[in-house]
Amino acid sequence: RRLSGAQNGLAIAGDYISAASFLGTTGAIALYGHLGLLFAVGFLASYVVFGFWIAEPVHRLGRYSLGDVFAARFPGRSLRFAVAGVQFAISFLYLLPQLVGSGLLLRLLLGLDFRVGVVVIGLIMSVYVAYGGMLATSWVQIIKTILLLFGSLLIALIAVVRLGGWAALAAAGRSSLEPLVPPAGLPLDPPAQAALLFGLLFGTSGLPHILQRMLTVSSVTAARRSVVWAAAVIGVFYLLALVMGLSARGVLSPAALSALAEEGGNLVAPALARAIGGVFLFAFVAALAFQTILAVVTGLVISATTALV
Questions:
Q1: Which of 52, 63, 99, 202 has the fewest CB atoms lying closer than 10 Å?
Q2: What single DSSP character describes residue 74?
Q3: In which band, very low, low, confident or very high, does the pLDDT at 99 lie, cut at 50, 70 and 90?
């Protein structure tokens, strides 16, 4: 309970802006146009739901884990076991794409075997969390958020200049509504898109590693302030992700984007950085993506181990 509302808000943003956000959403906007925007809008709007209905009641109970939060109203060992099982399952499933992203980046940067990269990152971050605990986890997330915002702003500005200014970006936006490649696995009909938005809106309120961050501040006011800070930072980030995704359509050729679609679009941001800034900016973006993955992994490891305890 030693973090201020602003610090916790930055940490929440760092916990939430995962590899799916930095790599995946940018790639989805570049490849799938308005369908990719669904993710950015849903992720951001979910913090309105979280802030109004979830954050304050969770903190007000004054507990240290989600099992304690549920048991405060519904005591019993069986419920604790149920909550722990669900919390561990969600944390584990959320952890998998982060480790996949780390394996892809290590293969891209160092030529390491994908499986070796996943194991190495998993071990390093487990040791880090074991020795550093929640405070160390919080600070790596805060630093990651500041670096990610700076890096995304830098890439977006350079990309807009390379594209020919804001007018050229607006023109790219008007022509980027339709998918560039077949959107495999993405909803095309309105009911399915509504279902996706529903899941994004309310899914954040059930993420254990986000809920647990409400237990790290000293007051209900600080908890409320945390959500406001987190929503503001996440909103700015997704605006930058939109600029990067649209810029990628103008800077990279359709053939290059189609080739990147084979990796699910997860390497669009690094490819854009290489195209507009050479090897240096590419390495900087890869480091940002790597830091993003590590910060989220620490939060998920904390959440999963708390569930087991």
A1: 52
A2: S
A3: confident
